[in-house]
Amino acid sequence: xxxxxxxxxxxxxxxxxxxxxxxxxxxxxxxxxxxxxxxxxxxxxxxxxxxxxx
Length: 54
Fold this sequence. Notes:
Layout: H1 2-17, H2 28-49
């Protein structure tokens, strides 16, 4: 859950850095950017950590 929150924050900051929205506003665009950042960070975590299923 913490990785998802951190990804949302990273997505929000990166989105505002490249000009996709502001951090002050709360709209559908900012929610989508934060969600994409969270999903991306979770995917990276999964790749780095690797699958532990046997």
